[in-house]
Amino acid sequence: MSLQIKSFEEYQDAYKKSVEQPEEFWAGIAENFFWKRKWHTVLNWNFKEPNIKWFEGAKLNITENCLDRHIYQNGDKPAIIWEPNDPSEAHRVLSYKQLLHKVEQFANVLKNNNVKKGDRICIYLPMVPELVIATLACARIGAIHSVIFGGFSAQSIADRINDAKCKLVITSDGSFRGSKTIELKSIVDDALMQCQSVDRVIVLTRTRTAISMLKGRDVWWEDEIKKVETQGNPACPAEEMDAEDTLFILYTSGSTGKPKGVVHTTAGYMVYAGYTFSNVFQYQPDEVYFCTADIGWITGHSYIVYGPLSQGATSLMFEGVPTYPDAGRMWDIVAKHKVNILYTAPTAIRSLMAFGDEYVDNKDLSSIRKLGSVGEPINEEAWHWFNDKIGKGKAPIADTWWQTENGGILIAPMAGISPTIPGYAMSPLPGVQPALMDENGKEIEGNDVSGNLCIKFPWPGMLRTTYGDHERCRQTYFATYEDMYFTGDGCYRSPEGYYRITGRVDDVLNVSGHRIGTAEVENAINMHSDVVESAIVGYPHPVKGQGIYAYVIANHHHDDINQTRQDILQTVTRLIGAIAKPDIIQFVTDLPKTRSGKIMRRILRKIAEGETSSLGDTSTLLDPTVVEAIIEGSKEFK
Ligand code: WTA
């Protein structure tokens, strides 16, 4: 069975087969990959424990699928095009042959540094080709990578390293982002003061910022490569992995406590990332594909690295930010590299829209054929701007809905094949069986209905566990509804049966497409010595999608409450990272609580949204006058 669907009829057939005979269906898709040994069982599962196994008995290495198998026919095809932060610096192109060579070299560096199969490796790098190389080098030798987004603080890095007991960190001296230089190594140094498990740090040269290098612990990437070169044999055979061996851990925020390490395994993830990449974007062999995500997030893992490379695609990665040196940068990149497929986020679209059309009107976007959106619901205005200004009304937009836990896209149109409606993720991909659930745990059948979005049946790319805490995985995703994976999203199914994601129904915020847990931010704010208590809610933000609104009870030490405000922001930046900084901090003397002491977030959300006339039932509040005081105080921010 060929991997790529070519028409709507083929989609319907594939979908039908994937539901009626899921094992035959996925076995047919898996035939399109390279296996050292085939599976004996396609699927073994239950959602109770949960226990999910795909392609059991199979042996493979994902890097052979992403690199080696393309070498014979497409060795010179660009695998990675890298566009630097500064447009005056030369861009880089790595062919499949060159990328394989560099991955093998660096895999040997890892081996020289005592990395073994199953070891956890933390990667904290800027968006440079070495990030792809490091990631694939881990996979080459069966080490488990845990990539951390460059915007996270030392404390967040330490928490993640300690949770996974990483033994080695790969970082760089610094990172260029727009006009700023960020001192990555120094942040890692701070983190490592709390980490016992790390005995080696490999440091790539990027910014030439002055950094400390600790004897016995820190080594330079370039020196280590030289050592491998003088050792002679540059090749590094791919480790034979079991289908269900862990490929990577990626931390993501939930509604409670600390971020959890989502675990993805080898075979199912590979098949799903490759299948969905090929189909959603309808990738053709000559196309240049540009995903603007950071590899520190799941979108970068699946749709810059593993999905595109497994399909032999040319994947463009960008080091910088869309507004540097000006708001036309993305369009300059499209014109310069003749990008055919652009996959980006609504927050980026809205921010560029706000700069005005003069940054896009004179750009040559004639190469664009297909567009994609991911990370949050796309509002109609942004959809139309993307469609009209970037796609010139000719490029289909795939609004792709999925999550870190899913490994790949679950609901989306296939570009050029499926119908599209602004704001709709449209229909499930083959293999995905969505269900809308009501408050009582019953499935809502029929159309023109809304409910909590669940998935009824396993798909190959789904998470297997949360690292070191399987019970947390069960509780979070499989305990709310019996025999269902619960997404945490609300969803509407239209009269025609199309899906529209309406946003999170739990205490998870989506700020500029970044997932942020309210509890996490509250914990950080509460660490400030003057803070007594706090409550966080999201509110509509014109560019970020959601902004963070903090209600804080504090004892001010400064006459100037703005000073306390700044101190709180600094505390959050230290503990999590600048991405979690509240947009608004309103100081309050009390929070609306029920008699049992639970904060009524519903009310706080309404106030943050400015909808104070529709607060709903407040009779269960311990002290209803609290609400009036908060409403009064909120006027300052309107
Ligand atoms: C939201 C990102 C509406 C959703 C791949 C989900 C979306 C969360 C869309 C996962 C979309 C992602 N339309 N909402 N097209 N894509 N979301 O784990 O709330 O960073 O649960 O994965 O983003 O975010 P995550």
TrEMBL record:
Q: Name one GO molecular function term.
A: ATP binding
Identify the enzyme class: ligase
In terms of CDD domains, this protein maps to: ACS (cd05966)
Domain Acetyl-coenzyme A synthetase N-terminal, chain residue ranges per copy:
11-66
EC number(s) on file: 6.2.1.1
Q: Which Pfam families match?
A: ACAS_N (PF16177), AMP-binding (PF00501), AMP-binding_C (PF13193)
Q: Which UniProt keywords apply?
A: Acetylation, ATP-binding, Ligase, Nucleotide-binding
Residues annotated as domain AMP-dependent synthetase/ligase: 68-458
NCBIfam families this protein is in? Answer: Ac_CoA_lig_AcsA, PRK00174.1
Query: Which family is this protein grouped under?
Result: Belongs to the ATP-dependent AMP-binding enzyme family.
Q: What is this protein called?
A: Acetate--CoA ligase
Question: Which species does this protein come from?
Answer: Rhinopithecimicrobium faecis
Classification of source organism: Bacteria, Pseudomonadati, Bacteroidota, Sphingobacteriia, Sphingobacteriales
